[in-house]
Design brief:
326 residues, alpha/beta, Rossmann fold, eight-stranded mixed β-sheet, three-stranded antiparallel β-sheet
């Protein structure tokens, strides 16, 4: 990306809070205050054009909520998303999403050809029925399927093939930015590699920008330019992919990487974790990771750490920041 080029997406202080349902007795009789889940609690990042920015973390950390906000399926409580202008068209950069479960995101009553052709028709991207049909067949070929598949229904395909259909449908809208929310988690390992390679080829051929959401660290390392590690709604570490995987700074990042099986080093030292993931309804004070962190001090339990630049990483950790100063 040139120094003067606007990033594809800039997220500034994004938060998303949900009020939990409250019974009439709790509200009226007992006067209990409503509870709130801070699914995302003030995160900022930028994604340069043509790159892949990945967000990783355990289930419940808020990464899928970020994906839904980026594509407009969920409104942020505060903060803003700034998209670059689309190339070759007026308006903002066009965005599409690839969902985790392809069978749930495809209309079972529609033939595959109609599923892929719908965005072309609705967005007016072709001026004729034959043009729409040609575009649909080309997209099937692009994702590794064939024109003969246009007349079949989603249930007639394997999981990997259905995900290819989802990718073709997303590409039908001619996007420049794709949000991939756990796109391989429902697939077999061998099929995961095929889908990841397809996404990489599409990025190279079409100049796409990806926001990649996953808990699969092997997949993330394979596709990412930059990685953000989320914990209880906040980004605790962000860095280039090689920096995250080869020189992790935050204790939580080290714990995540240590949890990945390593056949070559089965006896390697691992970071211990004292307790399970705290509830996002009542997150711990100070650094939210302190109940699980072997380095936790009084400062960690009482003060939330500010982001610090350590080498090529931005880290929220008192101990990492102090080690850098000393």
């Amino acid at each position: 990306m040139s120094a003067c080029e606007q990033p594809a997406l800039k997220a500034t202080d994004i938060a998303c809070w949900f009020h939990l349902p409250q019974s009439w007795l709790d509200h009226t009789v007992f006067g209990r205050p409503s509870r709130m889940v801070k699914a995302v609690d003030g995160i900022s990042f930028e994604i340069p054009r043509g790159t892949t920015f990945s967000i990783v973390g355990e289930s419940g950390c808020g990464k899928s909520t970020v994906a839904r906000m980026v594509v407009g399926l969920q409104a942020p409580t505060r903060g803003r998303f700034d998209f670059a202008a689309g190339r070759g068209r007026k308006g903002r950069l066009r965005t599409q999403m690839i969902f985790q479960d392809p069978i749930a995101s495809l209309n079972p009553r529609w033939r595959v050809g109609d599923i892929i052709a719908e965005p072309i028709r609705e967005l007016g991207l072709s001026d004729s029925r034959k043009g729409t049909e040609r575009r649909m067949h080309k997209l099937l070929d692009t994702v590794g399927l064939g024109s003969r598949d246009a007349g079949r229904y989603p249930h007639e395909f394997s999981g990997g093939q259905r995900q290819r259909i989802s990718i073709a449908r997303a590409l039908a809208a001619e996007p420049e930015f794709l949000v991939c929310d756990e796109p391989t988690s429902a697939l077999d390992v061998s099929v995961q590699a095929q889908i990841l390679n397809l996404l990489a080829d599409l990025q190279n051929d079409l100049g796409l920008t990806y926001l990649f959401i996953s808990h699969n660290l092997s997949a993330v390392r394979h596709v990412s330019d930059r990685v953000a590690v989320m914990y209880l709604g906040r980004i605790v570490e962000e860095a280039p992919a090689d920096e995250i995987f080869d020189r992790p700074k935050h204790p939580y990042t080290k714990f995540l990487l240590g949890s990945v099986p390593d056949l070559l080093h089965p006896d390697r030292e691992r970071v211990p974790v004292a307790v399970d993931l705290p509830s996002p309804i009542s997150p711990p004070p100070g650094c939210t990771y302190h109940p699980r962190c072997p380095l936790a001090s009084h400062e960690c339990r009482t003060m939330a750490p500010d982001p610090s630049l350590v080498a090529a990483s931005t880290v929220r950790c008192h101990h990492v920041a102090q080690a850098q100063v000393s």
